[in-house]
Task: structure prediction
Amino acid sequence: MQKSHLYKSLYWFSFSLLIAFMFRSSFHKFWQAWITAMMLLPSVVVMKYGLEQAQKEKRSFGRGVVFFFYGILCLYLSYMAILAAYWCFLELDSEAFNFMIVNPIFIWILLGFFIFVEQWIFKEKDQEEPKTVTIFSERKKTVLIIDQITFVESRGDFTVAHLDSGESFKNSVKISQWEQRLPDFLRIHRSFLVNPQRAALHGSKVRVGSDEDLPVSRGYKTRVEAFFLD
Result:
């Protein structure tokens, strides 16, 4: 994910350079056009956020209202950025003002195009690979997908990782170490660590899978109940 953020940062840096070349004829120096392009990035953020919010709306009317609101907000921020740049660099010289770059259709198409390209380029990269944990079971290196682990059981000198497929893997990792490796899992007993996404509170016990009921110790009871009842 860190690499993905870096690549996206480079992508939008390249965007600012391309926009600067487009605006170059409207300013005395290239760096002035580049700063103007950089000032458009908040508008990009607003448009991306607006698109995300619009997609969450189930009704077409609500989606249209959200899209319209963020479209106007994006346009407003773009105008403020461009006017601020002209005021700083050209003192609002009307003869040097390029009215094309304040055309609302031009702004929406320009920003929308780069957002579309970004989503297309990073679509596959943004899909996170399943998180895994590596252990040695039966003297063999074994890679387990964390989401498939239902619970981890301590049996004295060893622990057993149980999967939703019914498989189990005996290993020498202590349950306290499992707890560190699986920070999203919930400790319910000195001997049990469960995947909360695959568990539910069932009376005084925690049910994992379809019919596996695990005991909740007194020391963890308050925490477990608070977690499942919130």
In short: The CA atoms of residues 151 and 188 lie 10 Å apart. The chain has seven helices and ten strands.
